[in-house]
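Hello,

Our lab assistant flagged a job as stuck in the queue for most of the afternoon. It eventually completed. Since we weren't sure the result was trustworthy after the delay, we are filing this so someone can double-check. Below is the sequence as submitted and the structure that was eventually returned. Let us know if re-running is recommended.
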Amino acid sequence: MVLPDLGRSPGPTPIDVGPRAEPGSFRDPANRVFRVGDDILRALDQTAAADWRALTASGFFPSLLAAGKVCGTEELPAQSPWRHLPADASSRRWATVLRHERIPFVAYPYEWCFAMLRDAAQLHLEILQAALPAGFTLKDGSAYNLQWRGTEPVFIDVGSFTPLRDGEPWAGYRQFCQTLLYPLMLGAHLGLPFQPWLRAHVDGISPDQMGPLFRGTRRLLPGVLTHVHLHGSVQRRSAATSTAAVRAQLRDAGYTRELAAATVRGLDKLVRRLDHQPPPTHWVDYQYTCGYSNDDRAGKERFVVAALSCAGQRRLVLDLGANDGRYARLAARHADYVVAVEQDPAVVDQLYRTLRGEGQRQVLPLVMDLADPSPGTGWRGIERASFAARADADTVLALALVHHLAIGRNVPLPEVVACLAGFTAPGGRLVVEFVHPDDPMAARLLANKPDGLFPDYRRDVFEALLAGHGTVEDRLELPSGTRTLYRVALP
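-- returned structure --
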């Protein structure tokens, strides 16, 4: 099949850059993902290669590919120079190599809102329900096996498909519960944000962690008895039993492919019932309460559009502090892809649902506190890359953000500017707004701080810091006189 072209970033060609194994792909020894320039390659051992060829000959898999539910994938010809990728640490030799569609921006489940996590869970179960009747299953059930094209989830772990043997349960059930189902239950049943739990535990939330939260009458909430308490009990009883023994017990008990399919259908029904509308916060209506006049809004919009247009089509734009996505939508007209980052889960959830309804595939909304952005996590702290390591944007929009970080979160102004510049690729643009100390919003933040705490929060200091990182190409003082916009070219 021909892979969709989601835009290649400028820079070295695959010939110039050697293969680099992806740090998060080591857990399945049968296959390993490599990055070669802009190409995403998956090396398969002999068993995985046989499974892949059986998969492509099946009736269901080509349909999933055609519908975009699984990332575009093709097998490289034997004469391809990329077929000879390095063996893994155990000297395993690769039998074949696949090339995958490149996802525009990798995001992790602890950066998604509730509706995103639920849509990802539903796609995972939809794919599994298509695979089971055809004699295939998924080895994994992890939320990390899904990524996004804007508001469209896509399954990326092609190496997870494997032939189904009668009597075997779904091997990915535990992962599905811990990284998808349990986080959804926290939101739907308890109104708790799941993001801190998933960020703290790369393997997700365990039944032992969930159990104490669902005692008493909470045990009767949908899915809790079966998927939390019974699941936890079975895990504890089976802790000393080998996987082979568990499979034999299930086969002896009459566990069939039909029962496996029924279990997945039940999970799908449960996930569709789970819903959570985050309570509204003052950030939901921030665009209408932040004190901009109509002239300010119009001037700001013209400045941003001009900044986005000045260097042609952009590969990636970051909109930091995106709120309702007003400027992310503008950026999408001038960029291949936009990542809209906002701290408030309620705002991101509302934005995601709106964008999804519009069929938007260019804007990816994410939940993140920029004063505490996603760190590197997992094995050796690199299995899941930090946000800073993933953020390499042609243009960074930081509108009405600096004062919240510098005053609201006590981040020194030089650190704020250095952080924003660090998210910008070499040769890129930073479009940033400085809210003066006498602006009503800045004054409100300063009123809650000790007098004299921010003597250097001044326009002249801010401009000097910008000049230290790049060239100020353009600036605009809004009609209110208390906010200034800058376009900065980074070297």
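-- support follow-up --
The delay was a queue issue, not a problem with the job. The result is valid. The two ends are 39 Å apart (CA to CA). Residues 4 and 101 are 6 Å apart (CA to CA).
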